[in-house]
Design brief:
By secondary structure, this protein is of the alpha/beta class. The protein contains eleven helices and eight strands. The protein has an eight-stranded mixed beta sheet, sandwiched between helices.
Length: about 280
C-alpha cells in the first residue's frame, strides 16, 4: 500500500508515522509546499519521499488531504479529476478537515465522488508543522465519517481499516450535523481561548506580573490560543452560521455571570456554577 499525505503538519505527519510503523502502508509519499517543512519532514523521517501533488496522486493507492479546509476544498475536485483522467475507481482520497459541509458539497456531483471518504479525526494539539507530529496521537480518539452513503463500499471499508490501524473509533453522521456538533465541542473552545488571550494581553500592558502569576488553570484554558491562524481562519469562516449561534449562546451565559457578579447575587452565582458542574457527567 502506497499512501500520499498532502500537508505534513501535526495531523498529516502523525498519520504518516503510525500508518508506516504499524504496517498499513509500505511506502509513504509527502506533499508539502513549504520547503523548510518539506526538508524537516524528510529529515525527521515522516515520509519516504517528498514529491509533487501530481506524482503523489498518480502513485498512491490512498491520498490523505491533511491541509486547511480552505485549501482542501480547492484541491479535492482536482484530485478526483485526476482519478477520472486515469480512469481508475480503485484509488481513494480522504480528508481530515474540521468542517465537512462545504467540502462534501464541492464534489457532490463529481463523477468519481464514490472514491472520496469524508472524515474528521478528532485529535490534535495546539502545535503545528512537521515538528509537532507524534506517534499515538489518534489512539482511543473518535473519528467522524460524514455522508458515507456517497462513498463506495470498498473505499469506505478501506478507510475504516486505515483508522482502525490508528486505533480510532468511528462515528457516523451527515456533514451538516457534524459541523453543528464541531461548533459546540471544538470551534467555540478555540474562539474563547483566542478571546481570553487577547484580554490578558491587553491587561498585561499595565500589569507586568500577570504572567508570573499564571497558574495551570490559566495555561490549560488559554492553550488553544497558540493554534495556527492558517488553520482556524477557514474553519471559522466555513462554519460561520453554527459558530455565530454558539458565540451568541456563550455571550448570553457570560452576561448572566456578569449581572450576578455586578449585583452581588451570590445565590445566582452559585446556581450558575452548580449548573455548569453537570458537565462532569459528560466529561469524566
Amino acid at each position: 500500500m502506497t499512501i500520499s499525505v498532502i500537508g505534513l503538519g501535526l495531523i498529516g505527519g502523525s498519520m504518516a508515522i503510525d500508518l508506516k510503523r504499524r504496517g498499513f502502508a509500505s511506502r509513504v509519499l509527502g506533499v508539502e509546499k513549504d520547503s523548510v517543512n518539506a526538508a524537516a519532514a524528510l529529515q525527521i523521517g515522516l515520509v519516504d519521499e517528498v514529491v509533487s501533488l501530481e506524482e503523489a496522486v498518480n502513485q498512491a493507492d490512498i491520498t490523505i488531504l491533511a491541509v486547511p479546509v480552505g485549501s482542501a476544498v480547492k484541491m479535492l475536485p482536482k484530485i478526483l479529476d485526476a482519478f477520472q483522467a486515469e480512469g481508475s475507481r480503485s484509488k481513494i482520497v480522504l480528508d481530515t478537515c474540521s468542517t465537512k459541509s462545504q467540502i462534501v458539497r464541492a464534489v457532490h456531483y463529481h463523477p468519481f465522488r464514490e472514491c472520496y471518504v469524508a472524515t474528521h479525526p478528532m485529535a490534535g494539539t495546539e502545535y503545528s508543522g512537521p515538528w509537532a507530529a507524534m506517534p499515538g496521537l489518534f489512539d482511543s480518539r473518535a473519528c467522524i465519517f460524514a455522508n458515507v452513503e456517497e462513498s463506495s463500499p470498498k473505499a469506505l471499508k478501506t478507510v475504516e481499516s486505515l483508522y482502525e490501524c490508528l486505533n480510532m473509533r468511528p462515528i457516523y453522521m451527515n456533514a451538516d450535523n457534524h459541523d453543528v456538533h464541531a461548533a459546540y465541542v471544538s470551534h467555540i473552545s478555540h474562539v474563547t481561548s483566542f478571546a481570553l488571550a487577547l484580554t490578558v494581553l491587553d491587561k498585561e500592558k499595565d500589569e507586568k506580573h500577570i504572567f508570573d502569576l499564571a497558574s495551570g488553570g490559566f495555561s490549560s484554558t488559554v492553550r488553544l490560543a497558540k493554534s495556527s491562524a492558517d488553520m482556524w481562519v477557514p474553519i471559522l469562516s466555513q462554519n460561520r452560521d453554527n459558530v455565530l449561534q454558539v458565540i451568541d449562546t456563550y455571550i448570553e451565559k457570560m452576561n448572566q455571570f456578569r449581572t450576578a457578579i455586578a449585583e452581588y447575587d451570590e445565590d445566582k452565582i452559585r446556581e450558575l456554577i452548580t449548573e455548569a458542574n453537570h458537565i462532569k457527567k459528560i466529561l469524566r
